[in-house]
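Bug report

Summary: structure tokens for Lipoprotein differ between web form and batch submission.
Environment: batch mode, default settings.
Steps: 1) Submit the sequence below via batch. 2) Compare with the web form result.

Sequence submitted:
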Amino acid sequence: MTRALNLAALTFSMFGLQACMDAPDAKKENASDAFLPIEQQGFPEMYQRIGPIAFGRANTKADSALALIADRPSCDGVELAGVSDTSTSEDIVWYAYCFNGSKETISEGAFQVEKK
């Protein structure tokens, strides 16, 4: 019986280790899935304030920006993400609510620095 328990513990440890090894990629993938893309119809004030070019950047760069947030030690995975109302035409700001209750933000300027 002890041998069966040891085998079960070893199997669990192996799967647990694999899950830990996969976690960073899973966190990034989940961050992408948690993003709410913005559309002109749903966000007319933001569209007018930041303009069509920045509005497009907000959606196209979101996956990369949110992956950086997901990599932060303070975030255990992204539950919900979007574009902040504080965004300007020069600097988009994304927000993410993490499963652990942490709210994280990243600006386009910081994203360019962290990406390198």
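Above is the batch result. After comparison, the two runs are identical; trailing whitespace caused the diff. The radius of gyration is 19 Å. The CA atoms of residues 74 and 80 lie 15 Å apart.
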